[in-house]
Amino acid sequence: MSCRSIVFFAVASSLVSSAAAQSTLVLPRVAVVLDGNWQCNWPFVSRADTARMQQIIDGKQVATTSARITELAYRRDATNRKSYSAAVVSILVQMGHGANSAATMSTTFASNRAGAMTTVFSGTYHLPAQPPVSGGVAPFQLSFKLVKPFFYQRASGSLLIEVSMTNAILEYDVDAHRGGADGFSQSFGSSGSMRGNTSHLFRAAHPEQIKPGGTLTLEIDNLRFAAPALLLLGTSNDRIGPLPLPLDLAALGAPSNFLYVSPDSSAPVAISANRGVWGATLITSIPNIATLAGRTLFSQPLYLDAQSNALGIVTGNAISFTFGGKAASMNTVGSRTTNSAAGAFVFGTNGQGGPVTQLRGSFN
User: Fold this and answer.
1) What is the pLDDT of residues 81-92, one digit of tens each?
2) Quick count: other Cβ atoms within 10 Å of Cβ 7?
3) Which domains, ranges and CATH numbers included, belong to the chain?
4) Any idea of the CA torsion for 11, 232, 212, 102, to the nearest 10 degrees?
């Protein structure tokens, strides 16, 4: 086993889920600082006078035992470059406990309820005008402050959210996340300034192969010289201990350079010439550990070059990669009429997912 494989195995095997008490929860958790891998127009569905959406979130994603939820929010999709106009709609939001999981969700609305639903918002809602997002992710501006807290008990089932709307608008897509058998990867952040104005690149090739028993292929490209490189691998793109990410390295002597991932482990990278530029391709076999499915890791290269800045370090862009082999922890059914007894799966019969969701409250 190579040094890189040992490093990868050690970090991947250390992944554990936790549900510490907190005031804000973004689901799925990979979407805290990353745009979701999909977009959808639910619950603000287009081309319909009325619409109804039911969203199931598996309980283990929400709390270990219980939660007191005071606010629900969605956000616009960042990859869609359209501008959205302000609009006024009538919305009913209800919360309850789900009788099914994301994997077993029914297209019949009543079958997904484990009991009575609680109305947490009802009335006129003003959708804000939103321009395209310039880098990063959109803020959660589509928020509903609940008229009364919803008390969620994990032992009673999954978290069930129902949104019914009249006066539907033409188009208002929200950020969403879709799960499935294949892995996927996203690039985020920007490459630091390197001498010679080198526009160096870092990416994951063949992301569909990122799954237990599959292959992880990482590529560094477009370097203008053979800068020694170090590859960071981490479990967070949110914090390094008490420090929030990204971490600006300007104060250390590297302006326009940012650390985007937690450096939980690292490995040297051999840079070589290829088609007139310098780079590297790293291919690592992924351990066939079933519990890796659905987990996310983060990676970022560092280049050592004393001529680029006083610190002698140039940062690359970062990537996230999520292991396939597991369906999403949420699912969504929608209907273009509010009085319909059943709807259709928003992500298709073989797909699972839902709008990226922010909950505020306390989660235990």
Assistant:
1) 788 888 888 999
2) 17
3) 3-10+181-322 (2.60.40), 33-179+328-363 (2.60.120)
4) 90
Residue 218 — left, alpha, or beta (φ > 0 → left; ψ -120 to 50 → alpha)?
Answer: beta
Q: Retrieve residue 41's tokens.
A: 């127009």
CB-CB contact of 343 with 109 (8 Å)? yes
Q: How far is CA 141 from the centre of its chain?
A: 17
Alpha helices in the chain (DSSP H): 3-13, 59-62
CA 53, CA 336: separation in Å to the nearest integer?
9
pLDDT, one tens digit per residue, over 3-61 is 444 444 445 544 434 434 559 999 988 788 778 878 888 898 766 678 899 999 999 99
How would you classify the pairing of strands 50-57 and 158-166?
antiparallel
CA distances from residue 160 to 100, 141, 197, 325 in whole angstroms, order as listed: 9, 21, 51, 24
Burial class, 310, CB count within 10 angstroms (exposed 0-12 / middle 13-18 / buried 19+)? exposed
Length of the chain in terms of residues written: 364
